[in-house]
Amino acid sequence: THRPSTYLKYGTHRLGKRPDPLMQRWRDYGFGQFIHWGAFAITEGQWKGKNYPGATEFISTWNEVSKNEYESLHKQFDPKEFNATAWARQAKEMGVQYMIFTTKHHDGFCLWPSKYTNYTIANSPYKKDIVEEVVNAYDKEGIDVYLYFSIIDWNHPGYRVALKTDADKKSYEQFKTFTANQLKELLHRYPKTKGFWFDGTWDQAWIQQAGFTDSLERELRELHPGLIIGSRFRADEYGRRHFDSNGDLMGDYEQGWERKLPESIEDVHGNDWDCVMTVPENKWGYHSDWGGHVKTSVELIEMMARSVSLDGNFVLNFGPKPQGNMRPEENKLAKEIGAWMKINHEAIYDCDYAGLEKQDWGYITRNNKTGKYYLIIFNPPVSGAVRLKLLPGMGIKKVYDLKNLDTNYNIEEVYKDNKGTEYFIHLKNNPTE
Ligand code: JFZ
After folding, report:
1. Distances from the Cα of 187 to the Cα of 52, 132, 174, 221, 421, angstroms
2. What InterPro entries would the database entry show (predicted)?
3. CATH topology of domain 352-426
4. Ligand 1 test: best mutation among 153, 258, 284, 317, most atoms within 8 Å of CB?
């Protein structure tokens, strides 16, 4: 840690990683699930027979869609197949240790019965509190729940993108109070939650509220000790987001890895971080036509391994259908990833960057509880010989396969100098095997 070079009133509240047990628990998750659900799902990405090619949760911004019609969709929201316990069991089987749920996306529709707006689940035929059902069901499976909350709210009359006039400023004051009230309401209603996953904080209007957002963050943390908040919440007094004007991370982890992954450990600057990923290219809410490339379980597992090997968590998004069931593609992925996790979870949970040189065959993780190293191989060398470079003073006792603990691969020392030792681990004896 270092001293800030510029005095900032609303910069970071802390330098370096958060050391407490709740944050260590977050760091050790490795794998999480995101769920995007809300009124947008009812459209299935279609409007009056026309396909909307963008992300479903943005369909209300499409010229073809009238605001009034969109904002009455929830009057049809009655998900007959919704079963939070089934979601939570599937998530458990898939191997996630935490989940993030959309309490309110940009459209402003609340999946809990907020007392600060009428645009909520309470005014749908379903009526019941979906957030509560989700929090309780996941908690029962031992999966920690985080609340996704969009600051952008296209439904609220006081919401503004920018504050151009005094009237805008006046309206926005009401919006700020509304937002603070909703956040406190969520913490009050769902004390089991471990944190907020904020979104939609890039508007000029919000960026200019450094004093307000700084004290709101402090207030939320006081209300809920240990609360985890990422870097996508507030800006400093110079309008800098994620990293303040001194370059220091604001919040408990870096929240900028959205559908992309760091290449190397240098890219993450010693910070905690999460990567949130869609199965299709860029659609979070349910869309009947995913289009484009749909990721396979192997691709997603590789992204998870890469995330953990670079000190991050990997979070995979599911977008349930309007009736509340997951789509078949997601059910299949959950099974496939779950089968891999069943054997290999110890290479993901409690694991971090191993401090060793990256190799082309895959990723190396190290379990911070047992000290064991894991080689997660996605591109086995044709030779069958996997190269590994260890640091001075390190050695190898045994190399085995998690699928078969009795395996004992042959280890060949090929090079040694004062920087360490290089080995070949022979997965096969004969390259043509
Ligand atoms: C936002 C939302 O607009 C989207 O609907 C979804 O909820 C996603 C998780 O978050 O989309 C973003 C947010 C941040 C970036 C890109 C898309 N970013 O930082 O590049």
Report:
1. 35, 12, 20, 10, 52
2. FUC_metazoa-typ, GH, Glyco_hydro_29, Glyco_hydro_29_N, Glyco_hydro_b
3. Immunoglobulin-like (2.60.40)
4. 258
In tens, the pLDDT along 344-381 reads 999 999 999 999 999 999 999 999 999 999 999 999 99
Residue whose pair of structure tokens reads 């990833």 in the numeric block: 337
Two tokens, residue 207? 């960026």
State pLDDT tens for residues 17-29.
999 999 999 999 9
Please provide residue 199's backbone torsions phi and psi, each rounded to the nearest 5 degrees: -150, 165
Helical segments of 226-358, H only: 297-309, 328-344
| Main-chain dihedrals φ then ψ at residue 421, nearest 5 degrees | -125, 140
Q: Against a cut of 0.95, is the pTM above it?
A: yes
Neighbours of 91 (CB within 10 A): 25
| Of 428 and 104, more confident | 104
pLDDT in tens, 207-228: 999 999 999 999 999 999 999 9
Residue 57 alpha carbon, nearest atom of ligand 1: 5
Indicate the helix (H) or strand (E) that contains 351. Answer: strand 351-353
Q: Which residues touch 326 (CB under 8 Å, ≥6 apart)? A: 87, 90, 318, 320, 334
Q: What pLDDT, on a 0 to 100 scale, did the predictor assign at position 428?
A: 74
Distance of CA 400 to the CA centre of its chain: 32
Q: How many H-runs (helices) and E-runs (strands) does the chain carry? A: 10, 16
Nearest CA to ligand 1 atom 17: 258
Residues 312, 318, 320, CA angle at the centre, nearest 5°?
A: 160
Ligand 1 atom closest to the Cα of residue 36 is 7
**Percentage of the chain modeled with pLDDT above 70:** 98
The set of protein residues with a Cβ atom below 6 angstroms from ligand 1 is 55, 57, 199, 256, 258, 276, 284
Cα 177 to the chain's mean position, in Å?
27
| Structural domain spans, the chain | 21-350, 352-426
Give me ligand 1 centre to Cα 282, in Å.
9
The sign one gets for the Cα dihedral 42, 48, 49, 51 is negative
Residue 291 gets which letter from DSSP?
A: -
- Nearest alpha carbon to residue 275 among 285, 261, 263: 261
d(CA 95, CA 34): 13
If you write DSSP's letter for every residue of 117-156 in order, what string do you get? -S-BGGGSSS-S-HHHHHHHHHHHTT-EEEEEEES--TT-
